[in-house]
Write a structure and sequence with these properties.
It is built from three helices and seven strands, in the order αβαββββββα. A five-stranded mixed beta barrel has the order 2-4-5-7-6. The chain has two domains: 1-30; 33-139, Nucleic acid-binding proteins (OB fold (Dihydrolipoamide Acetyltransferase, E2P)), CATH 2.40.50. It is of the alpha+beta class. Residues 31-151 are extracellular. The chain crosses the membrane at residues 12-30. Belongs to the CcmE/CycJ family. This is Cytochrome c-type biogenesis protein CcmE.
Length: 151
């Protein structure tokens, strides 16, 4: 009986090891841009990403920076209070996308401009993505909705 239990344990360990090895091999063959990292504007300006690297950026849409071009082309700047990054986007912006509001964009860095392929805007007065809140708090510019800026 003990011999059968020992064989079973060895089989389970061997199958577990093979499954873990298979997962690691699959991860090794994923494209390098399969994982999208969040970066604040300060992080992007301090250490610019590689050309074409796909990542997410978030912050506040800088007041006075929104420029609508021909068709669906839009340019604006996103800031976290410490740095500002120019953004270009071709597509339909979310209905709640406005200057001074929080946003998160997915895209790539090319020639000093973040070229967004997707733009998300906060959906109500209370919500802002955690990454954006953390980046704004680091820069000392985040205020919770309802807080007075004079206090």
């Amino acid at each position: 009986m003990k011999s059968l239990e020992k064989k079973r344990r060895i089989q389970v360990i061997l199958v577990s090891f093979l499954a873990i090895a298979g997962i690691l091999v699959a991860l090794a063959f994923l494209p390098k841009d399969a994982f999208q990292y969040f970066k604040s504007p300060s992080e992007v300006m301090a250490e610019p990403p590689r050309q074409g690297e796909v990542f997410r950026i978030g912050g506040l849409v800088e007041d006075g920076s929104l420029i609508r071009g021909e068709g669906l082309a839009v340019t604006f700047a996103v800031t976290d209070g410490g740095a500002t990054v120019p953004v270009s986007f071709v597509g339909v912006l979310p209905d709640l996308f406005t200057e001074g509001q929080g946003m998160v964009g997915t895209g790539s860095w090319e020639e000093g401009v973040f070229h967004a392929t997707e733009i998300l805007a906060k959906h109500d007065e209370e919500y802002m993505p955690k990454e954006v809140v953390d980046a704004l708090k680091e820069q000392g510019v985040y205020q919770h909705a309802g807080e007075d800026s004079d206090s």
